[in-house]
Amino acid sequence: MTISEDLRKHRHELVVKHIEAENAQDAETALHTFTHPKYDLRAVEGGVIEGSAQVHEFIRGFRASLPSITYVGTSIHHADNAVIVEYRIVGRHDGDYAGIPPTGAEVDFPAIAVYEFDGPDLVCERMYLNLRGLEAQMRGGRTGD
Questions:
Q1: Domain tally for the chain?
Q2: Terminus-to-terminus CA distance in the chain, angstroms?
Q3: pLDDT, tens digit, for every residue of 94-127?
Q4: Is residue 145 scored above 70 in pLDDT?
Q5: What DSSP assignment string belongs to 31-77?
Q6: What is the H or E stretch that residue 88 is in?
Q7: What DSSP element (H or E) covers 137?
Q8: Residue numbers of the domain that contains 85
Q9: 58 within 8 A of 66, measured Cβ to Cβ
Q10: Is 145 inside any structural domain?
Q11: For 16-20, which contacts have Cβ atoms below 8 Å and span 24 or more sequence positions?
Q12: Which residue among 22, 48, 79, 88 sits deepest, i.e. has the most Cβ atoms within 10 Å of its Cβ?
């Protein structure tokens, strides 16, 4: 199936809006980019978080634990049922994350997010990154270059 240019543009704009909302720590706007809120974190040792309240809390909680982190998109790719974003997680580790107290270490780490669509509707974000490498940077080591 080949998607129309209008649908491709709509999906692109929705994904950009989602990323911008997360970077602005605006969980409410990020949540409302989904028609059916769902994060699939199984590739990063998590589970599936589904439903408005659960997804809102996940977004809010993650940003509270790492307030200086920003997602910088480096490439956006379009598929029939998804938008794939290559990005870098950049910033400073200045909040408690997964039992790692704030170190002030600078992080710059690659990751991929797959935004799954059902027609025009964003229905899932699936994340792929090496958590051990990101955590090593938080502790002051350099990995992922």
A1: 1
A2: 36
A3: 888 888 888 889 989 999 999 999 999 999 999 9
A4: no
A5: HTTBSS-EEE-GGGT--EEESHHHHHHHHHHHHHHSTT-EEEEEEEE
A6: strand 82-92
A7: helix 131-138
A8: 5-138
A9: no
A10: no
A11: 16/73, 18/115, 18/122, 18/125, 19/71, 19/73, 19/85, 19/87
A12: 22
Helix %, strand %, coil % of the chain (to 5): 35, 35, 30
Rounded-to-integer distance, Cα 130 and Cα 121, Å: 28
What CATH number is given to the structural domain containing 112?
3.10.450.50
Q: In what order do the strands lie in the sheet with 48-50?
A: 48-50, 38-40, 121-128, 106-118, 82-92, 70-78
Q: What is the pTM of this model?
A: 0.89
In a domain, 144, yes or no: no
Residue 31, token pair as written in the block: 């949540």
Query: In this structure, which amino acid lies at residue 42?
Result: R
Using CA atoms, how far apart are residues 139 and 105, in angstroms rounded to an integer? Answer: 7
